Amino acid sequence: YLEDLVVTEKMRGKKIGKLLFDALIEEAQNKKFTGMLWQVLDWNEPAINFYRKYYNAKFDAEWINCSLPIPITSS
Asked: Which of 39, 45, 56, 57 is positioned for an S-S bond with 66, CB 3.0–4.6 A?
């Protein structure tokens, strides 16, 4: 369980968020997870745009529940 993933405004645009989120995906793959679920508030446009741009995440209503299937890889 991860409570928050935050990249401060000053550090945005440097691919730090993508590196962190990619590391989460890799850890999920290593643990054989089949997906991820997270929430972002509907007013948090920078986060929503980030998840759309890099991950094609699926969104729903007020608390936006995001999910991402993780392909199983052989190690």
From this structure: 57
Cα 40 from Cα 16, distance rounded (Å): 18
- Angstrom CA distances, 28 to 1, 20, 33, stand at 11, 12, 5
SS3 70: coil
pLDDT tens, 48-59? Answer: 999 998 898 888
Please answer whether residues 71 and 34 qualify as being in contact, where contact means their C-beta atoms are separated by less than 8 angstroms: no
**Cβ atoms < 10 Å from Cβ of 17:** 19
| Three-class SS state of 73 | coil
At residue 38, what are phi and psi to the nearest 5 degrees? Answer: -150, 170
pTM: 0.72
